[in-house]
Amino acid sequence: MSLDEIAKRANVSRATVSRVLNNYPHVRPHIRDRVLQAVQETGYIPNAVARSLVTKRTNMIGLLLPQDARETFADPFFAILIPSIAEACTVHQRYLMLSMVTLNQEEGFYQSVLRGGHLDGVIVGVSMFDDPILPQLIQDGLPLVLLGRHPYYPQAHWVNIDNLQAASQAVSYLAAQGRQRIALVSLPASLVAGADRRDGYKRALLQAGLPIDQRLIIETNGSYQAGQAAMSQLLQLDQPPDAVFAANDPLALGVLHELQNAGLRAPDDVAVVGFDDQPSAAYASPPLTTVHQPINDLGFKTVELLLEAIDGQFSAPQHRILPTTLVRRASA
Amino acid sequence: MSLDEIAKRANVSRATVSRVLNNYPHVRPHIRDRVLQAVQETGYIPNAVARSLVTKRTNMIGLLLPQDARETFADPFFAILIPSIAEACTVHQRYLMLSMVTLNQEEGFYQSVLRGGHLDGVIVGVSMFDDPILPQLIQDGLPLVLLGRHPYYPQAHWVNIDNLQAASQAVSYLAAQGRQRIALVSLPASLVAGADRRDGYKRALLQAGLPIDQRLIIETNGSYQAGQAAMSQLLQLDQPPDAVFAANDPLALGVLHELQNAGLRAPDDVAVVGFDDQPSAAYASPPLTTVHQPINDLGFKTVELLLEAIDGQFSAPQHRILPTTLVRRASA
DNA sequence: CTGAAAGCGCTAACAC
DNA sequence: GTGTTAGCGCTTTCAG
């Protein structure tokens, strides 16, 4: 069923039907009612595709996830982020297209997704410094916002937390308790957030007058198991750490678990601080002290920034930084 | 840039350009080359919206997730399922629209998503028996496949595992070891999968000649914490269980954890079997014996069934059941 | 305030 | 084999 069936039924022109459907103000009430009634009776829904063809708007935004998205999904961070983006889209009456296309697979498909006119704009979950998809994306000129800052593309909009500052705060907290040998169980340095958190760790140590000991820094892939392995390795040191800053919560939980296996206690023997404040952090034993990031807000703000970028034109790149807080529980 | 710029450049008609773009067989090689070259030079990408308007195909499929989708996302089952669906879409050159629209929010938006012509078909992650969105969806007549069987809608296509049989197998395994008091830590009975697994548990007990003891059946929301709480409750019974069948892995992991807290050992004191075989199951302590479901295949098969439903016409509803296996590790 | 007409970018008969 | 011609279902000038 199409617009002009409604027009016939209501005995008006197609243009008029279009006007009432789009809430055009100056339509006489009784004729507007006639149209509305016809719509009601027939259950007519306008064809979004036809509309898009003329308006050049699809009301659809893309969410592009990094190459390693499959592992990514297992990370509770994304388990919260994605639904919040989806919800933000619904709230703002937009559709969400999820894509994990990478340059590897189907170059042509990637192009058609991005440049086929299907998307009003895209959110890119950046993570790696050298993500090969970013240069293309930025060149394409589609409205774009990065989820996570990226040092190489200052011209792009992004929303992020201040990873460096947050990590630094966590480590300073440990140092202020008199911890002398604070280890870092880190994310891959190839991730921007990984590098930022590592730098925050280092900055805090230096500010506290503590030495940076490479043996206390263990780079991991960010998983629970990697946390266990890292702690196990740290425990074999001649001088094991008396505190651990884990760059995310799964890591911290793994560290805690390994500590328990070794018959050690947190925070008595080793204090541990995590990063994320995922829901289960509060239920760990002991409950995890961790950096809370407002993942939900991150999702909403990102969508909203993109929508502004799509219709308002920013003259300068927008960089929004959301606040984090250190949540003190029992583990440190 | 549009199709007829290419036509002018290559000095052919728009129809011809369209033909080479759509791999129409009978185009003379040299003229095809001329077109291709023009495309190459200009970086032209066809407008998907315009194409859709005439073909009535958008190459986009929808993934509708249940009302409680936010918790859903935290479940590792979905953390694997969603990426696999996304990947299947990419492999089949389709776009994926993710939606968590429910009847509550924005009835009109929901309608426009489904009936606006944006989607060639939808996958619905059913879970609840009484999900209010299903009746509407089925009435809409959009090609549809349910992810998980639903007893009230036999006319719908679905793909699923045999939850009843799989649960029954797990419990029989416990019974065959001589376990006498096998507890069930279950999913909500309002979920189809929850009810099916519970029924499988009961069937296995009856077949093993074991009584059904309501005190040994604890219904939960399926989370890790709920698993802990359930085990704790079971331990307070006059006659605690000597085995537990947990209806998913987070639950089983919680059970294991609580056992450890109570100073008990699996499988010596209490055997435990989970369901899902999520990646971390193998790393639990002790490694978890659990029902493996082929989540990845589930995602792929679902997409493929939908694509068949979209263009092939099935005369009868298709019900695909994927095999599960009991993975024996150390916990039982 | 409303209608007529053009056209968004593409595909698909239908001729030649 | 290739070009011509209609639309797909909507919005949007432009008249009136």
Describe this structure in words.
Two copies of one chain form a homodimer. Chain A has about 325 residues and is of the alpha/beta class. Chain A is about 45% helix and about 15% strand. Chain A contains 13 helices and twelve strands. In chain A, the strands form two sheets. Chain A has a six-stranded parallel β-sheet with strand order 2-1-3-4-5-11, with helices on both faces. The first copy, chain A, has a six-stranded mixed β-sheet with strand order 7-6-8-9-10-12, sandwiched between helices. In chain A, helix 11 (about 225-235) crosses helix 12 (about 250-260). The first copy, chain A, is elongated. At the A-B interface, helix 4, helix 5, helix 6, strand 2 and helix 7 of A face helix 4, helix 5, helix 6, strand 2 and helix 7 of B. Chain A binds a DNA duplex (16 and 16 nucleotides) through helix 2 and helix 4.
List the SSEs and their pairings.
The structure is a homodimer of 332-residue chains.
Chain A: H1 3-10, H2 14-21, H3 29-42, H4 48-55, E1 60-64, H5 69-74, H6 76-91, E2 95-99, H7 107-115, E3 121-124, H8 133-140, E4 144-147, E5 157-161, H9 163-176, E6 182-186, H10 192-207, E7 217-219, H11 224-235, E8 243-246, H12 249-261, E9 271-276, E10 289-292, H13 295-311, E11 319-322, E12 325-327
Helix pairs in contact in A: 1-2, 1-3, 6-13, 9-10, 11-12
Chain A binds a DNA duplex (16 and 16 nucleotides) through helix 2 and helix 4.
Please supply descriptive tags for the structure shown above.
DNA-binding, 332 residues, 13 helices, alpha/beta, 6-stranded parallel beta sheet, homodimer
